[in-house]
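Narrative of activities, Objective 1.

The group set out to show that a structural description can be obtained from nothing but a protein's sequence at a throughput compatible with the screening campaign. Below is one input-output pair from the validation batch, recorded exactly as produced.
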Amino acid sequence: MNGKTKAWRCTVCGYIHRDQEPPDVCPVCGAGSEAFEIYTMPATEPLQQVQLWKCLNCTYIHKGTTSPDTCPVCGAPRERFEPLLDEASPLTHTDRKDVVVVIGGGVAGVSAAESVRHSAPEAELIMVSKEDELPYFRLNLTRFLAGELSLDVLPLHQVTWYTENRIELLTGEEATNLDVQSRVVTLRSGKRLGYDQLVLAMGSHSFVPPIGGVHKQGVYTFRTVKDAQALLKQASQGGPCVCIGGGVLGIETAGAIARRGGDVTLLESHEWLMPRQLNQLGGEMLAEHMRGMGIKMRFGARTREILGDECVGGVQFEDETIIPAEHVIFATGVRPNSYLARLAGLEVNRGVVVNNRMETSCPGVFAAGDLAEHHGNVYGLWSASQFQGSISGLNVCGIWTDFGGLPRSNSLKVLGVDLLSVGQFQPEDGSYLVFEYTNEGKYYRFVFQDGMLVGSILFGDTFFGAAVQKAVEKREDFSGVLAGKPTGRDIVEHFLP
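Output recorded for this entry:
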């Protein structure tokens, strides 16, 4: 810092505020001043704020004068929302009349468009989405597959919202070329879009490992509405199904099929479920819950080949074991859709490399969401995509706004079990303190470093999950609590009202 102005980072959404004091509320996510921490970086002007509501279950941010009847992401009722501002206040407005093109119809692209329209009412705004459907809540596809939601509630906005906000939405269109010198995007249809500012938010695609038989009939990935409809059709026909991948998507997919009465086996190459989000005990407790749903599981399972002639007939493992299958679903991770950016000569590593303003190596071109790589991190998380999209939109409008990174958090839908994993749940060395407590099928894990809560796992009970997540995001100091040599149960009781 230059000694004149401080920088403050919102621990909830990553927004950077520059002033001698933190703002009363964060203009991106609405968190209070207590959520800000000192951040070292140059300074520019601060921003104003908008009306926002936060779901205490899944941290979804809703924009509007009132909270929704139910959370469109996790289904929580209205009373699980808290207002992030007492009254509405518009974002800083600019008089820019730039042509802004947003490529991508996921939450990052839509959030960028929302931010641009709020901040630059006179800008010409065009959105390009590869899918035919209106932009939708992608993370609710497993709930649709499970029968919890219908297709008509998936869209992020209805079609009238785009017309009312003067957003030209081009669905079923794919960007095939980007000329950053002439500032022109070419679509597969041949249409050319000139732009002044560009946001790349093409998201990611399903990764399928290079094993034999992946092109057989009956092999699926699960990323789009069309994927979900195809899986639903197959599930209704019965037959054994194998889901490969024990992460969040694989678990929710297997759970959704089981909810439909399907015969499903989940394969995980690790020794327990969700190894990136859970320790072994947490993973084993989740597996026990899933067995109670009728889901079969195999661990340390390394797939060699999908068997069958034209259609799937089984799955063979590296140890020669074979299990029967008529349908195979790959939930083995995603990869950023970086082809267009590479073709245009932008800097690409794991994702499209961006700075704190979400700007790529080319001025005037921004990236957000699953596509973007910020300080080596490709988040692949709904909340990060939403915040990055909003921040990129502000910068498009010339309102200098920085993203300072986020702690990782995950929760589960569909399975009927409460689960929250946030921050660093595994200690790296002896400087960490770990407290655990189990009680009647519930499991609590808290990880501290230098007196601060840096990570937690809550399984079977997330009643105080919002407080735990906030404490991790703020890196709350528990030195006083820890000085009393507490047990895991004491830490749990500390969070209880």
